[in-house]
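Pipeline run #58 for the internal structure catalog. This entry was flagged by the ingest filter as a single-chain record with no existing model, so it goes straight to prediction. Upstream metadata was stripped on purpose; only the residue string is passed forward. Reviewer on rotation: M.T. Logging verbosity set to normal.
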Amino acid sequence: MNGPLHVGIDVGSSATRCVLLDECTEILGHHVLPSEFNYADGAMRLLAEFLSAAGATEGQVARCVTTGYGRRQVETAVRFSSRSRSKSDCD
């Protein structure tokens, strides 16, 4: 995979969802796992597994946007440019 990637993470009370997009906003894949007690740990584990399966690295991620119940925990845990959005911001 070449070029910058964009990640969206939705951290809900029962499920964490992740979507990966290329620089043209084409969806490259998505994955859903049950949310963990520590939302940030679960989301980062999901992201690492997802990037690995896609043949990508964190270094390729240009932006990460988080939404959902655990978004603030995840926003502080990501090691690249991130932004959190409330559900009402996304509607």
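catalog note: The chain has three helices and five strands.
catalog note: Residues 5-90 form a domain with the Nucleotidyltransferase; domain 5 fold (CATH 3.30.420.40).
status: ready for reviewer M.T.
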